[in-house]
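Long-time lurker, first post. I've been practising inverse folding by hand and with some scripts of my own, and I keep getting stuck on stretches where the C-alpha cells seem ambiguous. Below is the full C-alpha cell string for one chain I'm working on. Before anyone asks, I'm not after the true native sequence, just a reasonable design that respects the backbone. If someone could post their per-position residues I'd love to compare against what I wrote down in my notebook.
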C-alpha cells in the first residue's frame, strides 16, 4: 500500500513508491491524484527534458563520455534516437 501526498502550493504530488524519483515517470497514483484535482494537463515539474523535443538540442556523448561532434554522424544518431 502506497500513500500520495499532494501539495496545494505548487500542484505537486509525491508517492511512497518513489517511482518518479527513481525513473522520472509519475506513477499511476500520482496521475490519478492530478486527475482528481481537476488539472487539465500534467504540471511542468513532471515533464523531464528527456521526454521533450528539446532533448535533441542538447549535446550528445558517446559511451566513453566524449562529445560527439556535429557531423553527419550525429544526424544519423539523432535519427536512430528519434525512431526509439
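-- Answer (accepted) --
I ran through it position by position. Result:
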Amino acid at each position: 500500500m502506497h500513500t500520495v501526498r499532494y501539495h496545494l502550493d505548487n500542484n505537486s504530488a509525491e508517492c511512497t513508491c518513489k517511482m518518479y524519483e527513481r525513473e522520472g515517470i509519475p506513477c499511476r497514483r500520482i496521475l490519478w491524484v492530478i486527475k482528481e484535482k481537476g488539472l487539465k494537463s500534467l504540471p511542468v515539474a513532471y515533464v523531464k527534458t528527456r521526454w521533450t523535443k528539446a532533448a535533441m538540442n542538447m549535446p550528445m556523448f558517446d559511451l566513453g563520455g566524449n562529445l560527439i561532434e556535429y557531423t553527419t554522424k550525429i544526424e544519423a544518431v539523432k535519427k536512430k534516437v528519434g525512431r526509439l
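A couple of notes from the structure itself: The chain has three helices and two strands. The CA atoms of residues 5 and 51 lie 24 Å apart. Happy to go over any region you disagree with.
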